[in-house]
Specification:
- The protein is mainly α.
- The protein has 24 helices and no strands.
- Helix 5 runs antiparallel to helix 17.
- GO terms for molecular function: antiporter activity.
- Pfam families: CitMHS.
- Belongs to the NhaD Na(+)/H(+) (TC 2.A.62) antiporter family.
């Protein structure tokens, strides 16, 4: 008998690839080896990898993932098949264990996975609630108007939008950051499709690179941080490799960007009271999350929930101190349902914290519940141990991490990172940094490889396309390996 423990990390808010599930990790799930079931309480002499429940779980997970990949074709939201698959997988596991009188062991494993997901959910819920609050206050639109009014050339805007989103994406989720800068690009380049194409591609690459050197940049980095594989400050060792990953394609595209200046009409936006203070509270909330984790060893979600309470009290203060006689700003009146709202109703909607929570990307959050619980189930059965033996036993850790990173062009990087963490590979800090880097920037290889890419395909439809992204794939691949080389050079002591 053997005894193992389950260490299940929380899950990166952006659904990445939408292609067929051709990644190495998913393919290796069918590698014919024998494994053992894991237990959280006692040695379990079971081998579900060769059990009917194990085979059925594999089929269910693969079918759910393929259904999620074809969401745009079938119009079936990706969360539905993944939730069903996760439910059935754990039903089969508990049923198999119950037949041997050990159902409590499987139930304990399910609860361990559930606790990890809840920590992730609370963290993301608070983060996205603040982002929705800042959007309602007009902060993002104000940034867009400020950039447009500068009367900069196309090349200057190319570098400014890329550089800004590189920095912003280290604290704001990739989809939000990408769509924000994409709105700027489309607004100033509406008469120049070539600029829109190149600038959108630059924004996708910069967003993915910027989100890879911060634990707050996405689901995969959040996983590694909350699982304790890397400390909060250790992620910043990837800043230079990520910067290289952004700069190499940007420099190659620079001369293809038009040098002319766009003609854009100026616009004025009056932000409501409290906008800047909400931005400050968001910074305080991030500081609380980091402080709770580093100083008190509490989950980062605890600090985020403390920050949510600050936002609630601030909204309460605004509600009690606002002037009820002031007019409704036209921009916000349109956002909250037009001019039919009375002033009191408008203020109640604008300052309603639960309205912000209700507008979260619940389909994506529920998808990750299904993916996390489903992969956790496969890990409990023993399949991920088998995959780990192949990836990190027969291959070198470097080759394994590079290949997994390339797979993120097709499969969501958060799902891949969770699968690797569930394998418990015994690798040094430098390899965890390498895996974080490759999974973060690997999604830039294809337009469908990351949430920002998918978002901009819709936002700049007809100007930024899958085919136009593919033309620059060789340069992006060069940047991928260049960033890996820089990582080995400057972080050699971590291996």
């Amino acid at each position: 008998m053997s005894q193992c423990r389950i260490q299940l990390p929380p899950i990166r808010l952006a659904l990445g690839g939408t292609g067929l599930a051709t990644s190495l990790p998913l393919a290796l799930l069918f590698w014919p080896v024998s494994g053992h079931a894991e237990s959280v309480t006692a040695p379990i002499p079971m081998n579900l990898t060769g059990h009917w429940a194990g085979y059925a779980s594999l089929v269910l997970m693969l079918a759910a993932y393929i259904a999620a990949m074809f969401e745009e074709t079938t119009q079936l939201r990706k969360s539905k098949p993944m939730l069903l698959a996760a439910t059935l997988i754990w039903f089969l596991i508990v049923l198999a264990y119950r037949q041997l009188g050990q159902a409590p062991v499987a139930v304990a494993a399910f609860k361990s996975n559930l606790q990890s997901y809840i920590e992730l959910l609370l963290f993301i819920m608070v983060s996205m609630t603040y982002l929705n609050a800042m959007e309602d206050m007009g902060l993002f639109k104000a940034l867009k108007i400020w950039l447009v009014d500068k009367q900069l050339s196309y090349r200057q805007l190319f570098w400014i939008t890329g550089g800004l989103v590189f920095l912003v994406s280290c604290v704001v989720n990739g989809l939000t950051a990408g769509l924000l800068m994409g709105a700027v690009v489309v607004a100033v380049g509406k008469d120049n499709p070539r600029f829109v194409n190149l600038a959108c591609l630059n924004v996708v690459i910069a967003t993915n690179a910027g989100g890879s050197f911060s634990p707050l940049g996405g689901i995969s980095t959040l996983f590694v941080w909350q699982h304790g594989m890397l400390g909060f400050t250790e992620f910043f060792k990837l800043f230079l490799p990520c910067l290289v990953n952004f700069l190499v394609p940007a420099l190659a595209m620079h001369f293809a960007v038009p040098a002319a200046k766009p003609a854009v009409a100026s616009e004025i936006l009056m932000m409501p009271r409290g906008a800047k203070r909400i931005l400050f509270l968001f910074g305080v909330t991030i500081a609380l999350a980091v402080g709770f984790d580093m100083s008190l060893k509490l989950p980062a979600a605890a600090g985020m929930m403390a920050g949510l309470s600050l936002l609630q009290f601030f909204y309460f203060y605004l509600q009690k101190s606002d002037n009820p006689a002031k007019p409704i700003p036209s921009d916000f009146s349109l956002f909250f349902g037009g001019g039919d709202l009375q002033q009191s109703e408008f203020e109640a909607r604008r300052l309603d914290i639960f309205d912000k929570v209700g507008r979260l990307e619940w389909d994506t959050l529920l998808f990750f519940y299904g993916a996390m619980m489903g992969i956790g189930g496969l890990g409990f059965i023993g399949y991920l141990d088998a995959v780990s033996q192949v990836l990190y036993g027969q291959f070198s850790p470097t080759l394994a991490n590079v290949m997994i990173g390339l797979c993120s062009a097709f499969v969501d990087n958060g799902t891949l990172m969770f699968a690797v963490l569930t394998m418990h590979p015994d690798i040094p800090q430098g390899q965890w940094l390498l895996l974080t880097l490759t999974l973060g920037v690997g999604g830039s290889l294809l337009a469908i490889g990351s949430a920002p890419g998918i978002g901009l395909l819709g936002q700049a439809k007809g100007q930024y396309t899958f085919a136009s992204h593919m033309k620059w794939c060789p340069v992006i691949l060069l940047a991928y390996f260049a960033s890996i080389g820089v990582h080995f050079w400057i972080n050699a002591a971590t291996f």
